[in-house]
Amino acid sequence: MLPAQLPQIEAQSNLKTVESENGYIMMVELQSGPGAPFEDPRTREAFKLALDREQLVNSIYSGYGEVANDIGVFPQFDAAAGDPPVRKRDLERAKQLLKEAGKENMKVTLRVGELIPGMVASAEIIQQQVAEVGIQVEIDKVTDIAQFYDEGYFTHDLQVDYTDTITMYGGAYYWWLSYADYHNVGWKNEEFEAKFAEALTQPQEEYEATMREATQILYDDGPWAVWGRQNTLDVHSDKVVGIVPTKGRGFLNAGKFTSVSLA
Q: 251 pLDDT band (50/70/90 cuts)?
């Protein structure tokens, strides 16, 4: 259910709401390959510093969520992710970075489709936020979401995308490695790929330590701007008991209904 539905649900005494600290993230994917608008890492950092993450979480998720640190992986779901700090908005630093990169008043197109609620609204807020540092964004709305994963998915300047709770392993193999199936940002960092490959050869404790080093590289240089994660809101009848907030991936009791019974 959506946060906007809460007043309607709470008005019905026979319904109960469960809020779980998991759920989708929305990320802005920055095209970072050779010749791309965000090839220079200073432009990627500037974009991230221009975001007001609290405003986005409060506006898009009605406050039912958590600000994010641009990784898209949260330590409570994957110990290998580490916990880099959330970037604080710094407009002056962002402007300086754009100036150093020769990208003052850069113009880019932000591709978005309403695959899940709030994606288009997030693009409109981001457009306003980054304009304060001189990044001029034109929104390209994909109205037929069946076409979202066409050629434009891989050739955009900027793109709003989403995923559910992911791990470092899953994020790398799906998006960040240069040979990943959905590598749609042109980003290649040889140090990141070497650390990832090293981690896969190690037992669990060493794996997590090495993967946290890869996480730091992704945090410093990566092609994603991840501003927040939503909480999952489920509703159920008061005629059942045993439903508790879900930890990790999944929805409504993580699909484990052996603990659920009639009241």
A: low
What is the separation, in whole angstroms, between the first and last Cα of the chain?
23
Q: Is the pLDDT of residue 254 over 70?
A: no
Return the pLDDT at 39.
98
Per-residue tokens: 256:
């484990």
- Domain coordinates of the chain in residue numbers? 1-20+237-263, 23-230
Could you tell me which CATH number the domain at 23-230 has? Answer: 3.10.105.10
Q: How does residue 168 score in pLDDT terms, banded at 50, 70 and 90?
A: very high
Q: In b/e form, how buried is each residue of 8-42, taking b as 16+ CB within 10 angstroms? A: eeeeeeeebebebbbbbbbbbbbbbeeebbbbbbb
In the chain, what is the greatest distance between 2 CA atoms, to the nearest angstrom? Answer: 65
